[in-house]
Write a structure and sequence with these properties.
Layout: H1 9-32, H2 44-57
Length: 86
């Protein structure tokens, strides 16, 4: 005896919803990375360079070829000072 096609409809709906959710999350992650692929195995150096790029361009994954830093970057210090030393 075969499986009635009505029994497969819920499975098709679940598969469609999982696919839609996965594609939506992938697109959101792609947009958050500035249209670039996601990074893997990020070490401290990569985080430091990403923070510098964010301070230079305003985007975490942004890069610039301008040899001169924008105005105000010379006082845009990434070092964090503890509140007890202020």
């Amino acid at each position: 005896m075969g499986v009635p096609f009505e029994a497969l409809i819920p499975y098709a709906i679940m598969l469609g919803m999982f696919g839609f959710t996965g594609a939506g999350l992938s697109k959101i992650r792609h947009m958050q990375n500035g249209g670039k692929r996601a990074r893997h195995s990020i070490d401290q150096w990569d985080r430091q360079m990403m923070d510098r790029d964010r301070r230079l361009t305003g985007f975490l994954r942004g890069q610039t070829d301008n040899p001169l830093a924008p105005l105000g970057f010379e006082v845009n210090n990434p070092w964090r000072v503890e509140s007890r030393f202020l």
